[in-house]
Structure formats: C-alpha cells, structure tokens
C-alpha cells in the first residue's frame, strides 16, 4: 500500500482529494493536515510514503513544510498548485519536492501521479513541467545562477541525461532519445543526482535550464 498524507487547508478540497485517493486499491490516506505545521508534525508521526502538499497554507506554507519534510527524509512530496502560483512551486521544487500537480488534475491522473512519485521517478505531467521550467528560465534571475563547474563531475552520458531532464522527459522518453535501456537511465539519474547534491530529478531539470544545457 502507498500511504499518503494530504495537506490542504480548504476542507472541501481536502475531502475531495481524500475521496479520490481512497478509491484506489493500492493507496491509503494515512492522515490529513489543514496547515503546514500540522503537515510536518503528521509526517514525523506517520512516516507516509507521499505527502500531497498545497503551497498556500496558514501557519507554515507548503514551501517551508516541503523543505522540512524532505530535509528530514520523512516522505516524498507532491505539490499541488495552479499556474498563477508558479513562483511558490519553484520554491517547493528547490526545497526538494518530487513533482507537482495542477489542482484541476482529474482523478485518474492524480492517482497515477501519486504512484509515480511513490515509485521514485518523480516526473509528473512532463508537459507541465516543461512549461514551468521554461517560464522561470525566461525570468530575471533572483538569486545567484548555478555554477557550470558542477558539471565537471558528470560523465558525457550523465550530461546527456541531465539535458533530457531539463526538457521534462520521463525515463522512458530519455531511454528512447538516447537509445538505452530504461533501467540504465534510472541508474544515470540516480548517479547524477548524487554527484550534484540534488534531492529530485525536477531539481535537476531546473539546474539544466539554468545552465543552458
């Protein structure tokens, strides 16, 4: 069973998410949180597989809560957002979120996204990921740009995989593009994340965009 903690301050939205997730035979809603502080406390207590995290919540916002949950390795985080909250989502991805979903995502895709994140891949809606990354790549940099020197640790193949992640490609799509087995792609992704000190492949995608590779 995939154990999920749902963190959403709007009770009606939270109830809907719980209902959808509870309908899946392999997903169990382990707990519900109405604010960021409660989300962190419950993540520490329940140790779920995935936290479905809203970005705008009282007491502690979703970005700060994500940073704590990921930093303490309590669970993988899947962020809920709308496009007018891109900046919040970007912060959540930097904090280590495994991916994000739009709040208007249908039930089938919500369940699939939770399974994807629980499975360790963390790529949710690649087309949406590409749009988000592209929007931020086009904006003025608000913080120091990434140092290209970090790429020196990567092999040529790892750089190629990183470039594909920057386009928001899934493991299967990377495998097809680079003509390698999907299992090999997963290995390269794991290694490059370790070398670059990143928590998620989405962070790697943002880095690839920042470095223009």
Question: How would you describe what is shown here?
Answer:
This protein is an alpha/beta fold. The chain has 10 helices and 5 strands; from the N terminus they run βαβαβαβαβαααααα. Strands 2-1-3-4-5 form a 5-stranded parallel β-sheet, sandwiched between helices. Helix 4 links the parallel strand 4 and strand 5. Helix 2 runs parallel beside helix 3, helix 3 runs parallel beside helix 4 and helix 8 packs across helix 9. The longest helix is centred in the last third of the chain and has 15 residues. The radius of gyration is 17 Å and the shape is globular. The mean pLDDT is 84. It holds the Pfam family Response_reg.
Strand residue percentage: 5-15%
Rounded mean pLDDT score: 84
**Secondary structure: number of strands:** 5
Give the CA-CA distance, first to last residue.
38 Å
- Radius of gyration using CA atoms only: 17 Å
Q: If strands are numbered along the chain, what order do they take across the biggest sheet? A: 2-1-3-4-5
Low-confidence stretches: none
Order of helices and strands: EHEHEHEHEHHHHHH
Helix content: 40-55%
Biggest sheet record: 5 strands, parallel
Number of helices: 10
General form: globular
- Class of secondary structure makeup: alpha/beta
Keywords: DNA-binding, Phosphoprotein, Transcription, Transcription regulation
Pfam families: GerE, Response_reg
Protein name: Response regulator transcription factor
Organism: Streptomyces violaceorubidus
């Amino acid at each position: 069973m995939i154990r999920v903690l749902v963190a959403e301050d709007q009770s009606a939205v939270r109830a809907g998410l719980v209902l959808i997730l509870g309908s899946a035979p392999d997903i169990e809603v382990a707990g519900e949180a109405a604010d960021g502080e409660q989300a962190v406390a419950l993540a520490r207590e329940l140790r779920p597989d995935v936290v479905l995290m809203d970005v705008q919540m009282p007491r502690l916002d979703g970005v700060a809560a994500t940073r704590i949950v990921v930093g303490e390795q309590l669970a993988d985080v899947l962020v809920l957002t709308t496009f007018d909250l891109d900046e919040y989502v970007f912060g959540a991805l930097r904090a280590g979120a495994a991916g994000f979903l739009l709040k208007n995502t249908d039930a089938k895709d919500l369940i699939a996204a939770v399974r994807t994140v629980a499975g360790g891949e963390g790529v949710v809606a690649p087309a949406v990921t590409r749009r988000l990354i592209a929007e931020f790549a086009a904006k003025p940099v608000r913080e120091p740009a990434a140092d290209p020197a970090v790429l020196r640790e990567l092999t040529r193949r790892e750089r190629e995989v990183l470039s594909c992640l920057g386009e928001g490609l899934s493991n299967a799509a990377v495998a097809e593009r680079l003509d390698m087995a999907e299992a090999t792609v997963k290995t390269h992704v794991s290694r490059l994340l370790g070398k670059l000190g990143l928590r998620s492949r989405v962070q790697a995608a943002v880095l690839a965009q920042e470095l223009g590779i």
